[in-house]
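JOB MANIFEST
job_type = single_chain_structure
chain_count = 1
residues = 162
[input]
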Amino acid sequence: MANASILAKKQEVIDEIKEHINNANGVVLFDYRGLTDSEAKELRRALRNAGGDYKVYKNTLMARALNDLNINIDESLVGPSALAYSSDQIAPIKVLTDFAKKHESVILKVGIVDNEITDKNKLASLATIPSRDGLLTMLAGGMIGIVKDLSICLDLYSKDKE
């Protein structure tokens, strides 16, 4: 039987995993086999620029943490897995999808977006959604168009009344 100090360290890791998952709005489990050290640093830098990060944990510890959170993705915890997380729902998905296009060794397995389990197909569809800033820009552009049309209409109306 493992001694108490080893069990305490394992419990700390399990608590850390649960904290990352609870604090994140977007979590992605991915296979990182085949990444070189420089590619792993590049991926970490890209995730940090998007407001996230990733960490590699043992599958058994991730399974225990996920089971404590009542999340069942045990079938995805096969082979080496890394956990990417971010406060933005879409950011880790977009970063990992873009990175996987350049590096075939990165394979997305499953995600958790707003406490919902998402499979590979849904991850692929979520990756096509523009970023939050892009969506806000589209919204602002649409609103400016309406205001512009209204101002032209009011200007023509005022000239007609003169």
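[summary]
The radius of gyration is 22 Å.
The chain has two domains: 4-129, 130-162.
exit_status = 0
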